[in-house]
Design a protein that fits this description.
200 residues; alpha/beta; Rossmann fold; 2 domains
């Protein structure tokens, strides 16, 4: 029986590191960000809806959606952003569900992981058997994001403030992975939970 894990975490929490580790252990990992890019490809149902909603001026010469042009139309505009996510999030979920079903049917992986930063916001937390969240304290997340993404402190704080809090994520998760310490401490927790789910 294949187990499906929904993996999430805030900015600079170590979610991608956790996904990489699980993949190395033999999990089939589905990255919602990759699926998100696919929804903007010409020919996809979401592509047509996004263009119809936001106008043809968001298209590049090759008919692909210019993410920067689209971003400019929704940035700082909650109502416009909701129009976009109402199109894109269901499309991503459909692709994720199809991929999960295919991986389970193939039977080659005992664990499938759906990695998604917006898991709760998009309502995808019921797409698997367990929800895992990677958490990190605010100050550490800001410092890591500044270093990793070359952000100012104000920009890093603004990004973090726009996301769910650790407390909100913890309340809706089955497994909490604490990444306030070393990489080895993070991997130790992941190993423990990997052994538990892959043993069943």
């Amino acid at each position: 029986m294949t187990k499906v894990i929904c993996l999430t975490g805030g900015m600079a929490s170590g979610k991608s590191t956790a996904a990489r580790f699980l993949k190395e252990q033999g999990a089939y990992v589905i990255d919602a960000d990759v699926l998100g890019h696919r929804t903007y490809e010409p020919g996809s149902p979401a592509h047509a809806q996004v263009v119809a909603t936001f106008g043809r001026d968001i298209l590049a010469a090759d008919s692909k959606i210019e993410r920067k042009a689209l971003g400019a139309k929704v940035f700082g505009k909650p109502a416009e952003l909701k129009k976009l996510t109402d199109i894109v999030w269901p499309a991503i979920r459909k692709m994720a569900e199809d991929e999960i079903a295919a991986a389970c049917a193939a039977g080659t992986h005992r664990v499938v992981v759906l990695e998604a930063a917006v898991l709760f916001e998009a309502g995808w937390d019921n797409a698997g058997d367990e929800v895992w969240v990677v958490i990190v304290e605010r100050a550490i997340a800001i410092a890591r994001a500044m270093q990793r993404d070359n952000l100012s402190q104000a920009a890093a704080e603004a990004r973090l403030d726009a996301q769910l809090s650790n407390a909100e994520r913890i309340a809706r998760s089955d497994v909490v992975i604490d990444n306030n310490g070393t990489l080895e401490a993070l991997l130790d927790q992941l190993r423990k939970h990997w052994q538990r789910i892959s043993a069943n």
